[in-house]
Amino acid sequence: MIFWFYILITSLKDRTCTFSLSALLSFSFVSLFGFHILNPDVLFVVFLLLSFLVHEKKDSKLSSFIQYISLGIFVLAFSYTSLSSLSIKSRTERFGWEQDYGLYREEIYEEGKFRWTKKGAGFETYFPSSFFSINFHASHPDMERKPVKVHVFISENPFSKKKKIDEFFFRERKWERRGYFIEEFSEKKAFLSFKISRTWNPMKELKVRDPRNIGIGIGEIKYELENEIGFYQWERAPEGIPFRWTSLRAWKYMVPEKENLIFPIKISHPDAERRPVEVIITVNGERMFTEILNDHNWYEVELDLKKFLGKKILMGFLVSRTWCPWDYGIHDKRELGLAVGKIN
After folding, report:
1. pLDDT band at 78 (very low <50, low <70, confident <90, very high)
2. Cα angle, residue 193 at apex, residues 35 and 326 outer, rounded to 5°
């Protein structure tokens, strides 16, 4: 980038023509905002523009001839590589190149393979079904004092509009599997990307021989749910109601044996009166219950599941936001969403 700015300043100083200046400005913008600048096609254009910059200072027919010949060669070459089997899309499909970034080499842990990320990371994968889960891990030494925030996005490709599907914190060193139901990408390829609030450097902080700036660990992606995910352990409320807390979202397989499912729910966000919490309950991705809660009372939910009777269903419990008791001086680092009682 220092080289690019040097070229720009030199161009302005020498008053070179608008063509080279605008072209160099465009490529500076491209370099700053993250296109594939190491792509051979782009490098070809860079050297072409540099040749223009050199030759346009010389007022001669030879200089103009070289410019037009170079431009003609570029148009033909770029058109050919874009439309033929040499295009990036064709080469990616042919050789199985992965469109990923911000990931270190693969490593092994107790549950399989994983990769550390940088502050931002992303990769393309195929989704054979609507549901999938990802195992996450963080190892920052100071997480308890400075939680690590993670955003998860999905999109058609690295350059299309991203949809945020998750947001959570790490406050302790652990592996955590989180589930997602994304029906629009079922049986399709999609691009998952991750934004981490901060990284840490083992060499600087622990004096070990590892100079990497580490974000989070991303483990195996699973496309099947064995039973449930996103629930904490069973507890009993002062009213005697047995329940479990969810995180931002929780998922559970079951086979309804009755037409109606009845169970209690509640939230406990300290600021619920000022910032109400939306609660959504789904069945196989279909929204069956929606409510805005702004107090800490128990509410009874009754779902009509006639059309699902005797069939295996995936129930989803989602809240618009979670809260952490640790932030309020309570010795509990969980991200609490919805309390769900026993389903009858």
Report:
1. low
2. 135
Q: State pTM to two decimals.
A: 0.72
- Is 30 or 215 the better-scoring residue by pLDDT? 215
Which pair of tokens denotes residue 103?
């990931």
What is the Cα–Cα distance from 103 to 274, expressed in whole angstroms? 40
**What does the pLDDT read at residue 67?**
59
Residue 37: band (very low, low, confident or very high) from pLDDT cuts 50, 70, 90 = very low
Q: Which of the residue ranges 53-62, 237-246, 317-326 would you say has the lowest mean pLDDT? A: 53-62
Sketch the domain layout of the chain as residue ranges.
2-92, 101-222, 228-341
Q: Any idea which architecture 101-222 has in CATH?
A: Sandwich (2.60)
**Residue 253 β-bridge partners:** 314
CA-CA distances (angstroms) from residue 157 to 102, 123, 129, 189, 333?
Answer: 15, 9, 18, 9, 35
Give ∠ CA 86-91-93 in degrees, rounded to 5. Answer: 140
Identify the bridge partners of residue 147 per DSSP, sorted by sequence position: none
What was the pLDDT predicted at 97? 47
Q: In this structure, what is the dihedral angle of CA atoms 78, 80, 81, 86, given to the nearest 10 degrees?
A: -170
pLDDT tens, 184-211? 999 999 999 999 999 999 999 999 999 9
Helix (H) or strand (E) holding 170: strand 163-170
Find the mean pLDDT for residues 98-105.
Answer: 85
Domain 228-341, CATH among 2.30.30, 2.60.120, 1.10.3470, 1.10.287: 2.60.120
The set of residues, in sequence order, having a beta carbon less than 8 Å from that of 118 and lying 6+ positions away, is 102, 103, 104, 196, 199, 213, 214, 215
Q: Under the phi-then-psi rule, with left for phi > 0, alpha for psi from -120 to 50, and beta for the rest, what region is 285? A: left
Backbone angles phi, psi at 139, to 5 degrees: -130, 15
